[in-house]
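Reviewers of the previous submission asked for a worked example of the structure-prediction workflow described in the proposal, so we include one complete record here. The input consisted solely of the amino acid sequence. No template or homolog information was supplied to the procedure at any stage.
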Amino acid sequence: MKKKFFALILLGLTAALFVSCKKNAVADGKNADREAPVFAVNTTLASEGEIQDYLALSGDIVAGSTVDVYSDAAGKITRIYVSAGSRINSGQAIAEVDPSKPGMRYANYIVRAPISGTVVSVTGQVGMTISQAVSVARLSSTGALEIAINIPERFISKIALNQRCEVTLDAYPGERFRGVIREVSPVVDNASRTMAVKVNVENQGSRLKAGMFAKVKIITETKTGIVRIPSSALVERMNETFVFTVEEDENDPAHQIARKTLVKPGINVDSVLEIQEGLDAGREIISKGQTLLSDGARIRIIETTPAI
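From that input alone, the workflow returned the following structure tokens.
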């Protein structure tokens, strides 16, 4: 009897323990659902605007439309009337040359400017003996400056006359000067596999100087009215290209979720990405923290940055 009594007690304890464990397992499952992970993210808005593709090159600033000035008489230079940077008119005296020879005395010859313009450089010096083949000075007829650059062969299909350019220089950090392509070489150099191009650059206030090193952005394509996002927001996973948009959680209005949205990207310029299909301007997208997200993941927005 005692053995039977103890067996009944043991059976009862085992059943009670099973029921208790089952209830705890159900409770734990509910708590797990209730405590789904929440990911901290940053967001921004997809914007509508313009994007410009460009080629980034560099070159030296040179004087444009230059004319060399020669003396019609050979002799010794006795006087120089101008200096580099001087603005002169056509017919104005540039230098004076004494054409006298031993035993023969002649009146000094005045070398005059053949055109109006700016003196780019003075090659003659007082006391220097010159011939008719030696340049005394160099003039720029317009005062305009050019940037001589060489375009790699693989990019020449993107180059055309009158193409807009943006010019920056280390001498004026943060400033941009406007330029335009005015000359394109008809041939490609066999040795360097490049094509020579000259860019006219505006020189308001005469701040730019010949010989300066310039960085040039040649605008090759401009798109307006497009949807733009930060390129860092794009996710490429399992042969899919998408972004995560922000939506309200229908089951829990107090929280938000990340929704995978397939998109078709376009050109990417300076970390700004064109979206051709799949996303409208004004949609809130996740720009940081999306690496570990999945469709429907719960999120908490830490910061919202301005649209680009």
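Residues 2-34 form the longest helix (33 residues). We consider this example representative of the routine output the project will generate in years two and three.
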